[in-house]
């Protein structure tokens, strides 16, 4: 029988094919055999023929055809798309559609945009390949807004619009529409349409369906994706977003210039892009800039002209070109005075010079500049003069004084006379009041009483008055007195006793026109203070006085009296005395003279008191003293007859012994000597020598000045000082410490703490500490290295404490000894240190590898260890392999047996040996061997089947991988419920080819049945009992028949149902069900569709109270029958509403009622049967129920907040509530404000306060005050804000009665509710101004003043006050006129009249009146030049022919011609004008005056005018001349020198203020701190005034001087003007080199810091701000710390600094560098290992533990103490352990430490309770007791009582009723230790007090002994502790 095989291909996937096979002979066909085959499903191919159709401007209707190769049933289609033009998106938007729909509508797309679209089909095998990209463009629409529209003003009439293309062009942009409007009126100014080609230079954005046009596309972060009608959608976003690469056209700004705009006008600019239609508008508002004003200010006028001020006013220019301010300029006789700016239309000039002509210019100004100006001229009237100048004392005697002064600097007219007044300061009596005039005329000051003036007025009332009285209200005068020049005979005869009282009658003649004047005041008292004042007069009046204070000279005093003294201390004496009998002036001080009698050394001191404490005297010394008094004149005679003799007492020495010196020193002895103290202050009784080393202090006494100190430590530094004693002590005066170090010897101890660590297997690192007793400087260390079993020894000398030793043998033991040597020799060797070098990989392979075959496939490999293992052989690795496999086995023995090798196979093997460092890649020799044959080692593989029909299958399998021979046949086993069946199939083909599949066909199987099947392979030795994997075989299925049965549903809740059914009675296979659920409403789609194998299912999340249709169709894999689909109608249950009613409207019907309406809930979840309403208010809560959807709420309170809750109700209950908070409408208040009271009131205001209305019924908008003025019966009102409860009412009339009440207003009114009324009368105030004031000149010396009373007196008028010339006079309230007489002629007087009440003076009214005026003089004559220099001109002229008035001065007018003009015709040619005044006049003779301060080499012209009190007359004719040339007057201006880099500077300057000729500049540059740089540069005035200098040195100071000169450069230094030197420093640069020659020095007895010494960088390039050290510990290289070095010594050559904050015993790497202002320089490194010393002594004493009640935790045998947390610091080195020492009180000074057993049973001594524990960590802030880990129990170990414990350290129990002390001992790694202080004594309890009795006593009795209760607490605490070492409970255990 022969088996035939054939292959058929080219089938479609997932199709069912029937294959017929017939045999053919030469004459006929045989009956065909058939088989049914179903092909597998694979991924489908791409859909074909994609097409699109535009839907509006934002949609695409996409369609396609099914794939050419669906490869199965299409389940759905995947559509993904993205935007590619104008923006390239990186993420696709994905849409899923149904398989029966070959189109999809993509919506929400961007108009005018090209999209890339791809479609893929999906079947059960997955998503297939996407179609080729399909490009489609949406329809165009209006573009979006342009981007970043900005407006840039080019000038006041043009702007530049700038924008970018729209982000969403929505098509091809063809043009831009630009509109310009007035921002305020909206009037269109311009409307322009500009083509895009005229604006853009790049390629224009345009999208189409051609991919070649997308070169300009960009990536945008747009988040707008299209939408589909299909509900399933997924957005696929790549993990990495593509970078944005903007094309140039999108980054190119678009600009357009708009011109012909108006300045300072606000415009609205609108820009929109245009495609097929205009796009969205973007706008910007900009105001055009201002421009220069086009015309000057209008209506320029002057007003309010006074002697020192006037004001001007104007209107704005007619044309507005900006926001105007105004530039105001003032010019006077000397030229430009003021330049100011204002925004007002008025300006006041003040502080002007009287009697002067001023020119005022004003122009409007905007930000663009100043426009045209307008001007006017103002002349100020004359005024009183200023104060006289330079008033000083010329001579001062005891009884006379000579004063000197100069004319006033501001005469303000012609000086006519002077007044000199003298007052005594103490009594204020006037001694002299003299008027000085030029013509021997003395004016007397006359005082009149009021009766005299009344009579005089009657006498003059009938006289005729001269002239007219013109009043100038703007002229101000201030004469403090009234003068008259009439003699006594000229006075009118007056009836009565009127007398004239003259203050003085002396006459003094002076030259009134002199520049400097003097006067002698006589008849003064000596040593008296006087005040002298001098004032000047003009014709207008008297000026302010200049005041001088002086005191007359003193006389010498007499001697002091009654001198005595008292000893205060050994160096101080209190000396006291009485003042002189005749001081003759003020005693300014006393002088005490003293002399030391022994040395004759004299000294003196001064004091202002009558006593003096003399300090600093020599102790135990005799003195002689005397006292003298002094005034400013001199000193009194010395009081020799009253000399005092003083002796100071004995005291301690004030100085130490001197010259302490070393005579001799050895290793153990020091010889000293010294001299006595320089200031012993008594007899020396003995000397005391103090000497100390680092640990101890020693004291020895000596009676002489030498001593020998013995028993000293070798090579130890001692600090030695000496002090001397008197009988009173040593005075703490020790000699300067003498540092002496004893000589060296060999070390007395070996190096300590020798440790090592392996670097490699042949190298170690040896570390050790210096000897604890080095006895000198360790010069070298000697290391002896020897193998443990060897004889050869290596000797290594080193100076380091860490050394690496190399060339050692691997894994070998050595012994190491170390010794230290000083200059005196080698010391002791250390104890031998045993070291073992590290392991390594073997250096040789295992030996003698052999193989022995035991049986079949069992072999044994054997070998010997390697000759050079280099460590412990941890295992051997055996490698065995053949052609099929390779394996390795690790073993620890020297043999290995393999039992599981393959039969009949050739193997090779080798092995390696491994230590913990590996095998060293050393292999043994390779051996080869072969195994014998056998049965197969594995079964057939990969058994699969394929259904041919419903009763037959075809099997496939692959041969065994290890057949171990030839396969003869295969056996197939299969079984079902009927039994097991067996068929054999002969093998064919090459069985050695394990990749060749075998096959067989099984027939006559049961339909749709389950079989289990397996296969074996057999050789000649059998099947090896190897079976294949058992597989399950199912015959094929059929389509089921019949409906599902018992289809029912049950409501679980209102949103879920449970549906159940039974399968069909004839399922014909594995049945499953198609389930679909849809709403009952017509036209609704399915909401749920799925497959399930279950017969029940729960639908949840359904709509409540909704009808659904459920459809179930049974199916198998062969298909489903739509004929047997069954439907079920389902309705979900009702529920409470899911949402609240929707509040629709709310309205106030009145102030007490509202109407509310609502709509039903959006999700009612059933039939709404009613609505529940709950109203919450301030007084009550109400509930309502209604079936309507509105309600009217009545009887509410006005303006009240209510909350209403509305809920809908079904039969299931109410749903959620909707909440509405509302206020009822406001009403008028039902009550007025309360408690209106007055807090204060004045003459015109009142302060009120009140309480608010208790029933406001709304928001109080305002408070209204009803104000009734009782005296006038006027009623008026005032309002204030409703938020206030206090008010200040102003505007009341003084001295008037008022009634006031207040009411509150809401928006509806006040309800006519007024508060209580308050009544008050305002206080008096100052009266109003007097009325109708008139001043009329009656004659040349009198003026009549008249007035009417004020319109409002504001009180009772008490009197009137009239002030004239600074003097005020009071008049009766009944007077309304007065005549002032005895006035000066040709003078203007000002009168100030005001009324007064008790509240004060009212406002002044002013009137002015003048006597007959003087006239101006004629012009000066014959003006000529007499001398012309470069800066001055001398003029000569004759006086005017006529001077009709008092001559005041000559005014010399000087004008400078502008350098741009050659004539004087126009004002622009006059650069400036100045005036000079001459106050001397010579009649009919030449007058000479020199004008100084002129500019060199310039044209000037001059004119002279004379003046009287009226003003200046005509000027002389102009004469002109040119000044001579000269050297520069000033240096160059604005010299600025700036450093621009570390190596360059920039120099700039401007020309001098005054140019006196062709000017050149010499720039001189020198280095300041050295002579390394000096350079000069020359520049002319025509060249630029900027100079750049480079190639300079960093951070170097340079001096820059610029000299301006004319003429020869060689004379520049002599004749030129040099600027002030400007010192500039070039910038800093980082240091160029590191610190050099760095060394370090350890500080004796200091392990936390050390000194470093180094040379500063040679090129610091700046100020070294700090030296820093970067320090890291070798144990923790990552923890780097930066230290600012603390410099302790610094010179130019070296720096010594301290590095602190280190820890002992650690090795540090240190990098030192310098830092200046530019940064850090390079580093220099060093390495240091810090020494170790004993731990620092703790600052705290050990303490016991107290419980929460403050009682000690102590028993009869134990004491609980605190652990030493934060006691010891490891700064001095690592702390190895901490031990507890305990001792009975009294034995703590015993120096022998013993064991607990000996101290307890024998003799009390200190003993250790433990071997030691680590130093507890110190956590900051946790020093207090917080847990049992932080306490220690002394006496907790009861096992110490066990025999044999007497020699061990044990924490045994304590003795009862004993006092104990305890302390801690910290020991470091070197064995050095530090003890803490002993604790305070703690007493144990009595043994008889047990825990139970204590507990009973404490609980049962009122009085409990404190000790018993403490025992209770302690026992309880101990019972809670652990059981190790110091944490054990007491011996009695727990209660």
TrEMBL record:
Origin superkingdom: Eukaryota
Tagged with keyword Kinase: no
Domain Fibronectin type-III, residue spans: 46-141, 145-240, 296-384, 387-480, 556-651, 656-745, 750-840, 845-934, 939-1038, 1043-1135, 1140-1227, 1232-1325, 1329-1415, 1419-1526, 1531-1629, 1634-1735
UniProt-listed GO biological process terms: lipid metabolic process
Enzyme Commission number: 3.1.3.67, 3.1.3.86, 3.1.3.95
GO cellular component: apical plasma membrane; basal plasma membrane; receptor complex; stereocilium
Location(s) in or outside the cell: Apical cell membrane; Basal cell membrane; Cell projection, Stereocilium
GO MF terms held by the record: phosphatidylinositol-3,4,5-trisphosphate 3-phosphatase activity; phosphatidylinositol-3,4,5-trisphosphate 5-phosphatase activity; phosphatidylinositol-3,5-bisphosphate 3-phosphatase activity; phosphoprotein phosphatase activity
Record's catalysed reaction(s): a 1,2-diacyl-sn-glycero-3-phospho-(1D-myo-inositol-3,5-bisphosphate) + H2O = a 1,2-diacyl-sn-glycero-3-phospho-(1D-myo-inositol-5-phosphate) + phosphate; a 1,2-diacyl-sn-glycero-3-phospho-(1D-myo-inositol-3,4,5-trisphosphate) + H2O = a 1,2-diacyl-sn-glycero-3-phospho-(1D-myo-inositol-4,5-bisphosphate) + phosphate; a 1,2-diacyl-sn-glycero-3-phospho-(1D-myo-inositol-3,4,5-trisphosphate) + H2O = a 1,2-diacyl-sn-glycero-3-phospho-(1D-myo-inositol-3,4-bisphosphate) + phosphate; a 1,2-diacyl-sn-glycero-3-phospho-(1D-myo-inositol-3,5-bisphosphate) + H2O = a 1,2-diacyl-sn-glycero-3-phospho-(1D-myo-inositol-3-phosphate) + phosphate
Transmembrane region(s): 7-29
Chief localization: membrane
UniProt keyword annotation of Ion transport present: no
InterPro entries, alphabetized: FN3_dom (IPR003961), FN3_sf (IPR036116), Ig-like_fold (IPR013783), RTP_Phos/Ushers (IPR050713)
Topology with respect to the bilayer: Single-pass type I membrane protein
SMART domains: FN3
Keywords annotated in UniProt: Cell membrane, Cell projection, Glycoprotein, Hydrolase, Lipid metabolism, Membrane, Phospholipid metabolism, Protein phosphatase, Receptor, Repeat, Signal, Transmembrane, Transmembrane helix
First-tier enzyme category under EC: hydrolase
Pfam families xrefs: fn3 (PF00041)
Record family assignment: Belongs to the protein-tyrosine phosphatase family. Receptor class 2A subfamily.
Subunit structure: Interacts with TPRN. TPRN, CLIC5 and PTPQR form concentric rings at the base of stereocilia and may form a complex.
Protein name: Phosphatidylinositol phosphatase PTPRQ
